[in-house]
Amino acid sequence: MTEQNITNVVLVHGAFADGSGWRGVYDLLTARGFRVSIVQNPLTSLEADVTATTRVLDSQDGPVILVGHSWGGTVITEAGIHPNVAGLVYVSAIAPDAGESSGQQYEGFASTPEFVIDVTEDGYGYLNRDAFHAGFAADLSAEDAAFLADSQVPVAMSVFGEAVTNAAWRDKPSWAVIATEDKAFDQAMLQHMASRIGAEITTVPGSHALFISQAETVADVIATAARNAQR
Questions:
Q1: What SS3 state is found at 143?
Q2: Residue 143: left if φ>0, alpha if ψ -120 to 50, beta else—which one?
Q3: Domains of the chain by range and CATH?
């Protein structure tokens, strides 16, 4: 069994994806003795995703490291007030403050023209398939990127205008992993958010799909959080 202080990890995916992308991180952490649970976000509203995450947190048998990728960062910011959560890990993730929306985090930063979102008539967003490889997963193979593009989960675009009520990072220690070739966010935006929340920052070469392509680094940061969150 692992000697880490915390052995429970909950992983929260972002928009346009589902929990299966965490498989590499899951395998690495479980091999080190962690108990890993993966949330499946409906991506229909902030409340729905927070509820899905809280349901998983309720099932844990002790303190938890709560991890979010991309939009999942907003989800863990709200859901992270759960008493089981001891620390937060943001993986190229959004980190709003209480009263702020995800969309507000983009204000004042450069646009990301390679990250192309197509919106349906009913208000759901998909990443453009032709731009998916370059915009979301440039460091994955063409075959893997095509699978992710064809299996992507649409997100209600309205979620990016929903403000969080709580900011768990204000009371709990945070870590951040930032991909230096992320095309979903301006690098300055990622660095600004991570610095504002006081996160211990790790940068790694990689695309927005770093939760897949850089699974070892992500798993190492989660393990570091587990060792140090309660100190």
A1: helix
A2: alpha
A3: 8-228 (3.40.50.1820)
